[in-house]
Amino acid sequence: MAEKHQKVSADIIYTKVDEAPELASGSLLPIIRAFLKSSNITIDLKDISLSGRILAKFPSYLSKDQIRPDDLNLLGEIVKSPGANVIKLPNISASVPQLNSAIAELRDHGFNVPEYPESPETAEEQNIKDIYLQILGSAVNPVLREGNSDRRVPYAVKEFAKKNPHSMGNWSSESKTHVSTMGEDDFFSNETSVTVSEKSAGLVSIQFVSENGKVEVLKDNIKLEAGDVVDATMMRKKALRQFITNQIEDAKNKGILFSLHLKSTMMKVSDPIIFGHVVSVFFDKVFSKYDTLFAEIGVEPKNGLGELLEKVETLDEPLQSEIKKDIQDCMDEGPDLYMVDSTRGITNLHVPSDVIIDASMPALIRGGGKGWDNDGNERDAKCVIPDSSYAALYDETIEFCKENGAFDPSTMGTVSNVGLMAKKAQEYGSHPQTFVGSGKGAISIIDANGSKIIEQNVEDGDIWRMCLTRDTAIRDWVKLAVDRASSTGAATIFWLNQMRSHDAELIKKVHQYLEDYNTDDLKIEIMSPREATRSSLMYIAKGEDTVSVTGNVLRDYITDLFPIMEVGTSAKMLSIVPLMNGGKMFETGAGGSAPKHVQQMISEGHLRWDSLGEFCAIAASLEFVREDKNNTRAGILANTLDRAIEKLLDKRQSPSRKLGEIDNRGSHFYLALYWAQEIGKQDEDKELQDKFLSIYKKLWAAEQSITDELLSAQGQTIDLGGYYDTQKEKVEIAMRPSPTFTTIIDEII
């Protein structure tokens, strides 16, 4: 029987998210709805924000009028439906501190959701924690990504960057900046991977057998299908802590900044644990001296220095001052720390969600290999990336820049990406199968016949995980790679390392599935990540393009690193996800949800978030409506929106960072102006032409009044009614401050 999925309720599904992109939606979405209404194109809004996800999971704690639908679960079904058309904006991948802040705000707003129990003592508390664990980290993307990704910089954005190159830091061959990674006893070196046989297919379990023979089932009922690739690996606690100790000492000796680069949001189980080890090693004297006290007051190293300082503030004197002095002594004795915010004293070790490798490493590379110290000075840095699986991407790029200098955005080529991410592929789907060793023994994956698929010995504190990559996802990934190689004519490189167990299994499948296509005239190669990085850098330095074909984690890293070098930001990337059942999802804002933009908006009334990624996604989504629904007007709207975007860029009417200049709301006005103008100029649909020519004339005539009203709204503090749980009415006041513009848009029929 065919599998049934949620019926798609609208032509386009837009997403309610968090922080800057959500504020921007308060201005942009009314414009989009108005322009599409005349063409009978419907838009539905689904809430995948952090606060919305929390409320959806705890209906029994809420009053009847407070209960929210579980839109994430609903969207998870919609993306499996033919014809699904989803525009997915960036949402918060919450760390524990962010989760606690959101819970506190919701409780202040009258929602009686339970607090997060860090250390559950009852069955009820354990159940609450288990529910919150579904919300922590990257809880959204694995649910929605029912296809592999095609990420690229839109043509108009790339051309604008060439004509108007952004600044790049100067690289010196004498730079001391470098990458340090374990290379042994880490996830890369300990990995074992197999392709599931027909005999082992079915429901499998993960078991821990202690050295005295006691058996503990860690997880069961994991479904494996023949052809899937399953991996098991671990990171040794002792080796990790010794590695960290060595790197702290080396950074001190070299006189450079110590910086840590992880992905504690997406890798929401393993990376916070690693982060905690770094914090506790750096402040070893403090954690050793006060271990009993810290246990009593609930200090968790994995929540960072920031939470430690907050909990210390609750203690009485003189103990509080004594601990603060010991913390400062550790900082004085150790190397200077890489700062997230020098003005506020926020270090690289304060908050785990601030340690986002695919944001921090590209920024450092674009800046000439420099980080900021506590005094706001630029310094060379040691970039500590504990696991060596993907560290070569950044190591090779840094060494290339030392040899050749910074890239020139006006001439460099582009690196697009085809990413294997469907069906929770690889590490990003490992969270439910990640465990910390509770003692000496062995962790095994056991098939339904009782046979061991993989077995690995562990010790207390070792981090063990199982990853799974579906065969159907791999087949689709190879097909998408061939399609991109054919459509671009560019060198297309599978970033796979024969010396890595998982990649070796994928390489076999890539060779097998490439035989289904005629690739005679295509430039398709397989290289290790280090070789592929060097090759891609050489291509783009010559102004040539390449297509990177990668796994799930490298997809994230590459689609931040290269766009930040090419166009100054990854927020302008467009990610098209051809869903495996026939729909499409359009992801925007690879640069995240920009909390600093919100801080500026609240304090100054200026939102510098650039909605260019959303503009491009809307155009692509409309083009899919044309294809899927045979709606010719959708095609007209898509083509005219593309031309409006080009005009917006050419006239440099994107948001400025500075108060008193054009911001997000102003750029939305000019997009509406140029879009109406372009629709009014086309001659395929006379009714549309007449309608939008009239709208354009109204907007053009009112331009000065509208821009004056928008600018006058800046320079004052803004009350949004909350940070995670903003009030709709207050957001509308803040994001639609021009009565003239609002009236013209709302009168469109």
Q: Would you tell me the overall average pLDDT?
A: 94
Given the C-alpha coordinates, what overall shape results? globular
Which structural category fits the helices and strands?
Answer: alpha/beta
Q: How much of the sequence is in beta strands? A: 15-25%
Fraction in helix: 40-55%
**Largest sheet strand order:** 2-1-3-24-23-4-15-22-20-21
Q: Please describe the biggest sheet, giving its number of strands, its sense, and whether it closes into a barrel.
A: 10 strands, mixed
How many beta-strand segments?
24
Count the DSSP helices.
Answer: 27
Description:
The protein is an alpha/beta fold and 749 residues long. Helices cover 44% and strands 16% of the residues. It contains 27 helices and 24 strands. The strands form 5 sheets. A 10-stranded mixed sheet has the order 2-1-3-24-23-4-15-22-20-21, sandwiched between helices. Helix 1 runs parallel beside helix 23 (664-681) and helix 23 crosses helix 24. The chain is globular, with a radius of gyration of 26 Å.
Question: Secondary-structure map with pairings?
Answer:
Blueprint: E1 12-16, H1 19-37, E2 43-47, H2 50-57, H3 71-78, E3 85-88, H4 96-108, H5 123-133, H6 141-144, E4 149-152, H7 155-163, E5 178-180, E6 192-195, E7 202-210, E8 215-224, E9 229-235, H8 237-254, E10 257-260, H9 270-282, H10 284-289, H11 291-297, H12 304-312, H13 319-333, E11 339-341, E12 346-347, H14 357-366, E13 370-372, E14 378-384, H15 391-404, E15 415-419, E16 434-436, E17 441-446, E18 452-458, E19 463-469, H16 471-488, E20 491-495, H17 501-514, E21 524-527, H18 529-541, E22 546-550, H19 552-567, E23 574-578, E24 584-588, H20 595-604, H21 612-629, H22 632-650, H23 664-681, H24 686-701, H25 703-712, H26 728-735, H27 739-746
Parallel strand pairs: 1-2, 1-3, 3-24, 5-14, 10-14, 15-22, 20-21, 20-22
Antiparallel strand pairs: 4-15, 4-23, 6-9, 7-8, 7-17, 9-19, 11-12, 13-14, 16-19, 17-18, 23-24
